[in-house]
Amino acid sequence: VKTHLQAQTLSAVAVGHQHNHENISRAFESIYKQHGVAGLWRGVTGAVPRVAVGSAAQLATFASAKDWVCQRQWFGEGSWAAVLAGGMVSGVAVAVTMTPFDVVSTRLYNQPVDADGTGKLYRGFLDCILQISSKEGLLGLYKGIGAVYLRLGPHTVLSLFFWDELRKM
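Above: the chain's sequence. Below: its structure in token form.
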């Protein structure tokens, strides 16, 4: 529903498939009527690995990055600045690992479907990755990485900062 509504625009500037929902409740209703509950979950094959890979990157890099800046004596051990620096490095790792999954999920969510709910452009997660890579190159999987970092960077920094502070308590 979110992807359908975010992709929606005037036909003069539209890029990609337009679903033309009036509002969020009509989007839910339309998708459900056309494709049932499964239609509301279309694209989940890209979203689940996205979250798994992003969380793994976040947790794997944070402590290492925080320790690294402390070892270099850029910031003192246990300082909030070391936590923020570790969070920033972790945010970059999260953006780099999650962006291909974001691109694939968005393509799967937003593709037109036939009457039985089968995607008209991609047969699934792997087919989508292969098509993007072959037609647009590997950098095609990183479309929007700047916007991804602008969203995930601050989220990662703040989440890890508060987690670290709560852990100290």
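The CA atoms of residues 113 and 119 lie 4 Å apart.
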